[in-house]
Amino acid sequence: MTNNLPCGGIKRVATLDDLVERDKNHDCGGFGAARVCVRVEAVAELPSRFGRFRIVAFWNNRDGKEHVAMVHGDVMGAEDVPTRLHSECLTGDVTGSLRCDCRDQLEVALRRLASMPRGLLLYLRQEGRGIGLINKVRAYALQDRGLDTVDANIALGFRDDERDYSIAAHMLASLNIGSVRLMTNNPNKIRQLEQHGIRVSGRIPHVMPPNDYNRFYLQTKASRSGHFIDFDGKEHLTEQDEPVLVEGMPMNPEPPL
Ligand SMILES: [Zn+2]
Ligand SMILES: [Zn+2]
Questions:
Q1: Which pTM does this prediction carry?
Q2: CB atoms closer than 10 angstroms to residue 55
Q3: Which residue among 34, 43, 85, 144 has the highest number of C-beta atoms inside a 10 angstrom radius?
Q4: Active-site positions?
């Protein structure tokens, strides 16, 4: 068994509701170095303030983290599905932290996907660039005391980015997605998915519309090649690994890989 399963390696079924039954005994060679395997455990309607979605909940064989897909329209078996990968950020997504712009990125993505005939957002539980919530707060604390963002992560024993997209690749395969148009500003993310056997047929720039409240923040981040300078002049890593494109501003340089 290869650890680079193509999307076609998992049996196709007709509807999202069939996934739970199909996956009851699913156990494959797994994706990526960690050989992660996921199963669809539950599917339900999820009307949201951003539009109509269904939610698909996944179990995985490596840790207790439960990932979800937000599905708009008919995506199964479809080609060129507009897709956004969002890494969990409790401080940004839930509490509206201004140390990052995760919540803006999430809301803009959901709104845009819901306005299209079909779209898909994978909500990946890799909090704090993959180091977890407690460690992310520890890194914030070190930054508050003057360490830069990369040194803070290294001081805690991590690389500056611990994210892994193998679980996202398996989720796309489980949903029988033919190919995706990835909503991202980051070519590296596309390469990572392709390495896991996912067909990426295009890219949709993830452009953030500025408003009176976030314009300065977004422009600062955009002009600093994906890094964000906070109100105290300290640099933070972007948690979504996305150099921000702001409407009306020229594209910023290639992101750091
Ligand atoms: Zn599997
Ligand atoms: Zn964040």
A1: 0.86
A2: 16
A3: 85
A4: 161, 163
Ligand 2 centre to CA of 8 (Å) is: 33
Judge whether 105 and 240 are in contact, CB under 8 Å. yes
- Count other C-beta atoms under 10 Å from residue 146's C-beta: 10
120 domain residue, yes or no: yes
Buried b (16+ CB within 10 A) or exposed e, 3-24: bebebeebeebeebebbbebbe
Which residues have C-beta within 8 Å of that of residue 8, sequence separation ≥ 6? Answer: none
User: What is the share, in percent, of the chain residues with pLDDT greater than 70?
Assistant: 79
Other residues' Cβ atoms within 10 Å of the Cβ of residue 164:
18
Question: Where residue 1 falls among pLDDT bands split at 50, 70, 90?
Answer: very low
Domain ranges, residue 94? 16-126+163-221
Q: How many domains does the chain have?
A: 1
Q: Cβ contacts of residue 174 below 8 Å, gap of 6+?
A: 10, 19, 23, 26, 38, 39, 40, 58
Q: Which residues contact 234 (CB under 8 A, 6 or more apart)?
A: 143, 144, 146, 148, 149
At 252, list the tokens: 């910023």
Q: 61 C-alpha vs ligand 2 centroid, how far in Å?
A: 26
User: What is the C-alpha to C-alpha distance for residues 173 and 26, in angstroms, rounded to an integer?
Assistant: 13
Alpha carbons within 13 A on the beta-carbon side of 134 = 0
Q: Is residue 177 one of the residues assigned to a domain?
A: yes
Is residue 69 one of the residues assigned to a domain? yes
Find out whether 119 and 73 touch, Cβ atoms under 8 Å: yes
Ligand 1 centroid to Cα of residue 175, in Å, is 12
